[in-house]
Amino acid sequence: MARYWLRIGPLHALSQVLGWCSLIVAAGVSYHYARENINQRRKAQELAGARPPEKLDWRERIEQQEKQSAQTSTGGSTPVANASSQSSLRGGR
């Protein structure tokens, strides 16, 4: 072990520690600014009405998307019916 330290020297270990510390500090600073930006964007979306104020479970989110798609669909046709009619127009099954 002593030979290893004599061969690489203490400056090598110091430069490794300095490199890791600078990497950790840079990651922390970038996380801070990214988090700040995300929070500002969420507040702006909530004020604009584009983001619901409550958190939804995945089941509730799917139900909400299905309700919205049912309201926006024209003629009462389902997406499956639309896909099958389009494939029959192209000569598919």
TrEMBL record:
Residues 42-93 are annotated as: Disordered. The chain crosses the membrane at residues 13-34. Residues 52-66 have a biased composition (Basic and acidic residues). Residues 67-93 have a biased composition (Polar residues). The keyword Transmembrane applies. Keywords: Membrane, Transmembrane, Transmembrane helix. This is Uncharacterized protein. It comes from Wolfiporia cocos (strain MD-104).
